[in-house]
Amino acid sequence: MKFKKYLMFLLIAALAVVIAACGSDSKEGENKDNSEEKSSENASSEGDSEKVEGSVVIDGSGTVYPLMARLAEEYMGEKPDVSVEVSRAGTSAGFEKFLVEDGTDFNDASRLIKDEEKAKAEELGIEVKELKVALDGLTIVTNPENDWAKELTQDQVKGIFLGEYTNWSDINPEWPKEKIQTYGPNENHGTYEFFYENILEEQDLVSDINLQQDYSTLVTLVAEDKNAIGFFGFGYYDNNKDKVQAVSIDFGDGPVEPSLDTIAEDGDYAGYTRPVFTYLNVNHAKEKPQVLDYALYIMNNVNEFAGETGFAPIPEEEAQSLVSDLEALK
Predict the structure, then answer these.
(1) Strand-pair category, 245-246 with 139-142
(2) Please, which of 37, 76, 89, 311 could form a disulfide with 306 given CB 3.0 to 4.6 Å?
C-alpha cells in the first residue's frame, strides 16, 4: 500500500514537471513571437526612416543625358516618391544653372569643371563633389553614302575641322572633288570644348562649320548630307547606326573603330576617350536626403547601365570609392 502511494506521488510529480516544462516552452514561444514582432516593427520603422521623397533636379551635358535619364527612370521605379528631372542644356550652360543660389542639384558634364567655375562655387559657398560616371569615345561620323573616308588619321581629322582641306580630294586625289561639310555641337557643350581643346589644340574651327545645340538635329543633318562629317559622343552614334557611320581613327598603329571594347583610358581608342561626370551640390545633398540618396544610387548602379546607353564603364573600385565618399556625407 505504501509502495502504491509512493508510485502515485512519483507520477504526480512527473506530470507536474511536464506541465511546468510545457508552460515554459509556451512562454518562451510567446516571448520569441513578441520579439520577432518587435524586430519586424523595428525593421519596418528603419525602412520608413530610409524612405525619401521630394525632387531631384539635374541639368548639363547632352552627351551624358542618355545615361542619367536611364538611371533616373530606374531610380523612380524603386523610389516612386522621388521625382528626378533630367535636362540637357549642355555642360557649360548647365554649370550656369548649377552655380547659382538655389541652383540645380547635379550638373552633368562631358569635361572637367573649369577653374573659373570652381571659383564661382567657392564665392557662392557651394561645395561641389565631382563624380566620374563613365567613359565616352568621341566619335567622328559621316553620311552612310560616304564610301571613301572610312578611315582617317588624327592629323586628317584635325585638318578637316581647321579648314586645311576644302574638298575631299584635297585629302586623297582619288576621293570626290566635292566640298567637305563640317558639323558639331555648339559652345554650350563640353564635347565642343573637348574637341577644341584636345583635338584641335585650341585652334579655331573652320569658319563655316554648322554647330548645333540639339544632338538629334546634328544626327539628322549628317544623315541628310552626303559630304557631311561631324563629331559627338559614341552613344549618339551607337543609337543612330542606321543614319550615320563611324570613321575609324588611326592613332599611329592602324585604324581603330570606336566601340565599347576599344573605348578606354588605356585602350586602343584612348586618343579620343574621355571621362564624363556629374557634379553634386554637396550642400543640397546634406539638406535634402533624396539628393544624397540619388547620388548613392548613381554610383552604385552606373556601371550596370553604362553599356546600354553607349558608355564604357569605369573601374568598379573607382565607383565604390566614390560611394564611400558619399556615405561619409550622411
Answers:
(1) antiparallel
(2) 311
What does the block give as the cell for 38? Answer: 518587435
Is the pLDDT reported for residue 76 higher than 90? Answer: yes
Work out the end-to-end distance of the chain between its first and last CA atoms, rounded to an integer number of angstroms: 79
Q: How far is Cα 236 from Cα 256, in angstroms, rounded to an integer?
A: 18
Alpha-carbon distance of 30 to 197, in angstroms, equals 72
Grid coordinates in use for 39?
524586430
Residues paired with residue 246 on neighbouring β-strands, in sequence order: 141
Cell 563624380 belongs to residue: 131
For CA atoms 258, 194, 214, 230, the dihedral sign is negative
Residue 18 has pLDDT above 80, yes or no: no
d(CA 280, CA 69): 16
Task: Check residue 1 and give its pLDDT.
Answer: 42
* Mean pLDDT on 146-169: 98
Whether residue 217 contacts residue 210, with contact meaning beta carbons closer than 8 Å, is answered with no
pLDDT score, position 51: 86
Owner of C-alpha cell 545615361: 67
Q: Do 129 and 284 meet the contact criterion of CB atoms below 8 Å apart?
A: no
Sheet bearing 273-281, strands edge to edge: 82-86, 54-60, 106-109, 273-281, 128-137
Mean pLDDT of all residues belonging to the chain: 88
Spell out the residues 6+ positions from residue 298 whose beta carbon is closer than 8 angstroms to its own: 68, 71, 131, 133, 278
CA distance 248 to 151: 5
- Strand partners of residue 210: 183
The pLDDT assigned to 50 comes to 67
Three cell numbers, residue 171: 585629302
pTM of the model: 0.81
Task: Tell me the three-class secondary structure of 137-179, residue by residue.
Answer: ECEEEECCCCCCCCEEEHHHHHHHHHCCCCEHHHCCCCCCCCE
**Over 60: is that where the pLDDT of 277 sits?**
yes
